Request: fold
Amino acid sequence: MDCIQKLQQMIDESENIVFFGGAGVSTESGIPDFRSVDGLYHTQYRFEPETILSHDFFMTHTEDFFDFYRAKMLLLDAQPNAAHKKLAELEKQGKLKAVITQNIDGLHQAAGSENVLELHGSVHRNTCMDCGKQYTAEDILNSVGIARCTCGGIIKPDVVLYGEVLRDDVVERSVQAIFNADMLVVGGTSLVVYPAAGMIEYYKGDKLVLINKASTNHDAHANLLISEKIGEIFSKIK
Ligand code: ZN
Reply:
């Protein structure tokens, strides 16, 4: 039995699947992985992306933040790939109960997923820091310089920047979903970044599937390990 057949069989036998995904899920949609060789860390900017995408930098170099953010983070033409679509289908079939993602691009919702737990927030929610008025990602993309509310306040994207804490309720619901899962599929993440590595420890079942192009430090714990691109794998699942 090859790994696709094995994965198919595990999915067929499960009724409470949870998916935990990282940047690799979106790279096949053309969104660069922060930490990969081809990713943002190797582009030319005056500051390191990790510096730019920090809370301190947002507060002190707000205009530089928005210049970078609009150019590199708001890739609004990106479309869901086979992985996003298959996960949405499995949710509609009642087999998949939650998608937990470290991505901020909203592509799971664009594919039709409803229960999406966004650990790092979303570019699609933006809030005035003064009055709380909400703005779309398009509003931010079309703004110039510092994105400002009609009230004059600065609009902050609801993405978790370096130096900011994750939302407690999202973490709690994610841990609960993983704990209750009969199958956990982890894809497109090397599992080195907090909180990914710690969260999958809550899984107690015997159907842990890791799908990642590179090796991860949890490979030994996987019941099924697939070292391929996740979109390609999911395009072969019925
Ligand atoms: Zn405002």
The domain at 34-74+123-159 is CATH 3.30.1600.10 (SIR2/SIRT2 'Small Domain'). The mean pLDDT is 92. The chain is about 35% helix and 15% strand.
